[in-house]
Amino acid sequence: MDSSNTTTLRGAQTGASGARRVNTTYRICPRSGLQFEAQAEKLMLANAVAAVVFLLLGGILAVGVVLTRWPAVHWLEAPTFYQVLTAHGIDMLIFWIIFFEIAVLYFCGSTLLRSRIAAPRVAWLAFALMVIGAITNNVAVYQGGSSVMMTSYVPMMAAPSFYLGLILFAVGALIGCFVFLGTLVVAKRERTYEGSVPLVTFGAITACIIAVFTIASGAIILIPTYLMSIGLVEKVDALIYRTIWWAFGHSSQQINVAAHISVWYLVAAVVFGARPMSERVSRGAFLLYIFFLQLASAHHLLADPGISTEWKVVNTSYFMYFAVLASMIHGLTIPGAMEVAQRSKGFTKGMFEWLRKAPWGNPVFAGVFISLVGFGFLGGISGVMMGTEQLNLIIHNTIYVPGHFHATVVIGTTLTFMALTFYLIPVLFKREMIAPKLAKLQPYLFGFSMYLFCLVMMGAGTLGVSRRHWDMAFSGVAMAYEWPGAAYLMMGLVGISGLGAIIGGALYIYITVGSLLWGKRLESGARSEQVTPLARATPAAAAQTYGSLGFVAPGTFALAMVFLTAFVLYYFINWKYLSTLWGLN
Ligand code: HEM
Ligand SMILES: [Cu+2]
To answer: pTM of the full predicted structure?
Structure first.
């Protein structure tokens, strides 16, 4: 480890260069050494709690979705199913994740940089807008007439309040992004950190930049659609809608990826004291996201007529790989950093002692590791397969698609955020975690049920089972389609594994809310009116400074080769399958 990180906080301590006296207090968490500014802390709490409320709501709705898609149960009536599916998608993917991300941004801006948050009042306004928007949108969906799914493609129209809710929420989130950017400026001006911003914060900046672009795209298309719903605009072109909507819909997934990968680096730092193998490479990989990810939006339009093949191919078969490359760099350097850190602690036997002796009973680590592996193998490989123009035809609009994105946004983002919450319960919530045994179990139950859930959805999708379809059996239809038995079997397993994941999600909510409400209060750490310098021995110090670990990680290299083999095999199998579908032999 480099010895240059004797971080002292010249500016803030001496009150030098522009440091403005602001009426606030700071506390040092005695368990982590992290410093929380009073306003930022409250804002993080509020956003995280709102996130969990929507996760709870989305999880309850998931029961309805899953029990209807399980053919033997086929629970809800068609109109209710589409209504519940719309609310499930939006509450989960938009409200749960973005509320949590705003909390993560404030954490990376304020806590990691040891700075006060810029403009806390504005941040509260942002929060209020987001809450009002989310409630307005939900009410619209439950009132009926807005079961347009989360993509809300025109010319299918929802109630005006459906779009208005989304727009208010987006404006709030955008303001939250600017508060984060403002916090960076404050930290820089008041010199609360030395050198470059820490890598985790750098990742959060990436997420924030993508978010600004994303929200702007969302506004460009949702505002005219809103105006159409109230009768002021006559027509929004369907193809233009889809193109711009996906500049928003796809990019918003990149916010998630950048955010959860930042959290992986954070957890590697706080659990192992691990620094990235190479700061520069990791930062470069984050930059690749900014440059190339939006271009990959084209993979959502591969089946759209009216868009040229050249455009689709250039975007999805060339530019997309730079973004994939970035994810693979993170996917290697994070376990690599953990390996190097573990080896330096003496776990050097063979290729994998570092991994065997990892803290598997710690849900913060277990959650992140299960997330990382599942995100790479299930989400990553299937994503590249689907993003290939020809192969996309096999799975377009089948339940393979939700199989893929539950691997990215649930196993990747959601499981990571759950793991981070467990870290934050004693640190930010200042409570002892209730039910630690259940907490140990939680990432395994939720993660592995989700692994199976995604796999069987992808399996059923490969056989052609539609997504967003109330009745795969087409009962009562004159010329029904005869599915192979395997399709029914896999949809049955979707039901069972889905319920497993829902129980895992319920455990998370029970532990989080329970700890918050009746967990033993922990000492919060002394409050001070001034920023305190970061002690080098602080557990979280590695997350707050600059530096690289180096490159000796044979175990991770072996894992990477396994990944590559799986990738090549799966790619090959799909081309082979495509050739049988098209009868080219
Ligand atoms: C807790 C366990 C969960 C279960 C059992 C579950 C189940 C499902 C199922 C079966 C579908 C597909 C329905 C269909 O296409 O016919 C679906 C759709 C969806 N889910 Fe989940 N889900 C869960 C959690 C999540 C989470 C955490 C997120 C986001 C972070 C999420 C986001 C979505 C989205 C965006 C859709 C697509 C909605 C649409 O097609 O418009 N789900 N879910
Ligand atoms: Cu995409």
So the answer is: 0.93
